[in-house]
Amino acid sequence: MKPPLFAYQAPRTIEDAVAALGSHADAMVLAGGQSLLPAMNFRVAHPSLLVDIQHVAGLKGISIEGDEIVVKAMVRHRELELDEAVGRANPLIAEILRHVAHIPIRNRGTIVGSLCHADPSAELPMLLVLLGGTVVAQGSAGKRRTAADQFFHSFLTTTRRSDEIVIEARFPVLARTAGWAFDEVTRRHGDFAIAGVGAIVRLDAQGRASDVRLAARGVAERPLRLTEAERHLVGTALTPADLNAAGKLAVSAVTVPDDLHASARYRGRVVSTLTARTVATAAERARRRTAS
Amino acid sequence: MKAARMKPAIPADSGDPRIAIALTVNGEQVERRVSVRMLLCDFLRHELGLTGTHVGCEHGICGCCTVHIDGKAARSCLTLAAQVDGASIRTIESVAAQDGTLHPIQQAFKECHALQCGFCTPGMVMNILSRFQDSEPLDLSEDGIRYLLSGNLCRCTVYINIIAAVRRAAELLGQA
User: Fold this and answer.
1) Residue A33 is nearest to which of B73, B79, B85, comparing CB atoms?
2) Cβ atoms within 10 A of the Cβ of A63, count?
3) Of A135, A252, A254, B106, which residue has the fewest beta carbons closer than 10 angstroms?
4) Does any CB of chain A come closer than 8 Å to the CB of residue B75?
5) What angle do CA A175, A179, A182 make, to 5 degrees?
6) Chain B residues near residue A37 by CB distance under 8 angstroms
7) Binary contact (A7, B77; C-beta < 8 A)
8) Domain boundaries, chain B
9) β-bridge mates for residue B24, sequence order
10) What integer best gives the mean pLDDT of chain B?
11) Burial code of B108-138, b = ≥16 C-beta within 10 A, e = fewer?
């Protein structure tokens, strides 16, 4: 399997990259290539022009600005996973990244590239939705910031305009007292999961849930917050009965049809179980973080 | 029909647009003009004759084509030759010493019978070597080694022996 023919440009400035991207209707951005090149090898993707952004100035590095972790477009998965400051600011990020493919792929694949690929089963789009992060895109009309719930549109489709390049993703840091958890059901390590759920829980002084954020992947055409389950849990003591009830409410998020890997009914059961399980883990971590 | 008459008519020149690349491969400076769509694995094998890098699935699943790009393990089937312009590549050909002395990881594979057909071995060795040079401490538990090897498939299913070889390599490298 070899990729179909394309034109290739490797610009050095973001202005040149945006201009190149706008010059062909079906041009695509090449960053790490770990999703795009398999798609091209299969000839599922056949862009007429690849704009390789690896040499574009200003697209490297991770920084923490206030309460946001800023990840530039050429930051590889593994770089973010091993960043110690990021690990302290938001331990959920490294925990989730360990589930993305395998280390050699994480050595090349980029965070922003995975967000732009927008696979509804992938880890990073769900992470951005769960944390309520944003992306910053630059196009011919300038820069604009888009919230995660406005960025992911459908299967492999975002609201990025065709002449825009996402130059950075911004992940909120985790509140010091918040607990977190992530879990998934997958046939083999590194596969796209049948379904996965992430949870962030904060507790009040009485140990009741004061804030719950839940997001799921592999359930719909894009990663989703599990808002009904979230609302049900806020104010409760997070007893096993509360968690099970929230799990049942999460089932309605599953709208994808049966496929080769799982029936919709089975996915619903997976999401239900993972919701209860991740909230329990997140609550336990919140208790420990609040106590220390 | 005679075999000679079945030879397909392949043009000598593909007509693909070409791009000049300059990179380091196993410590040697290399400059070539390559098709923009040439994969790094094909560049290593067909342009440079470095056939130790094996091509299995060509979509990033099997790990046979693993090489080092700027010191880190990567899939050469998911990388264009054009993308490694200016980079430093290391392949399995550079792992043993010039006089044929095996690298400790190769020695461990030999001692532990960690290969049968050997097709996956170059990718396995390059992946393991990269992890031994990584900043993250190695987890030499059963689960930790399985996690390390999860991106490399062995169709002879010699996994148990490969896990043993990783432990043995850690001993030989003084990282156990």
Assistant:
1) B79
2) 12
3) A252
4) yes
5) 115
6) 39, 60, 77-80
7) no
8) 18-94, 104-172
9) B29, B88
10) 94
11) bbeebebbeeebbbbbbbbbbbbbeebeeeb
> Measured over all CA atoms, what is the biggest interatomic distance in chain B, rounded to whole angstroms?
61
Residue range A199-231, pLDDT digits in tens: 999 999 999 999 999 999 999 999 999 999 999
Yes or no: say if A252 and A231 are a contact pair by the CB < 8 Å rule: no
Residue B175 binned pLDDT confidence (cut-offs 50, 70, 90): confident
CATH of segment(s) A179-291:
3.30.390.50
Task: Give residue limits of the domains in chain A.
Answer: 7-52, 62-172, 179-291
| pLDDT tens for each residue of B44-95 | 999 999 999 999 999 999 999 999 999 999 999 999 999 999 999 999 999 9
Do residues B42 and B35 touch, judged by C-beta distance below 8 A?
Answer: no
Alpha helices (H) along B12-69? 40-42
pLDDT at residue A5, rounded to an integer: 94
CATH architecture assignment, domain B18-94: Roll (3.10)
For residue A88, how far is the Cα from the chain centroid? 19
Q: Please give the single-letter amino acid code of residue A277.
A: R
A264 neighbors A195 (Cβ within 8 angstroms): no
Give me the helices (H) in chain A, please. Answer: 14-23, 36-41, 77-81, 84-89, 91-97, 103-106, 111-117, 123-131, 148-151, 227-233, 240-250, 264-291
> How much helix, strand and coil, in percent to the nearest 5, is found in chain A?
35, 25, 40
Residue whose tokens read 């090449």 = A30
* Overall fold of domain B104-172: DNA polymerase; domain 1 (1.10.150)
Q: Domain A7-52's class?
A: alpha beta
Encoded tokens for A127:
């992470």
Q: What letter represents residue A271's amino acid? A: V
Question: What percentage of chain A reaches a pLDDT higher than 90?
Answer: 96
* Cβ-based neighbours of A222, under 8 Å, separated by 6 or more: A118, A120, A125, A152, A153, A154, A155
Tokens of A258: 């049966």
Q: Which of residues 77-106 of B touch A (CB under 8 A)?
A: 77-80, 82-83, 85
Angle between helices B159-172 and B142-149 (to 10 degrees): 110
Amino acid at A23: S
Please state, in angstroms and rounded to a whole number, the distance separating the CA atoms of residues B64 and B70: 18
What pLDDT was estimated at residue A243? 98
Tokens 């057909």 locate to B117
Task: Read off the pLDDT of residues A62-90 as tens digits, 9 standing for 90 and up.
Answer: 999 999 999 999 999 999 999 999 999 99
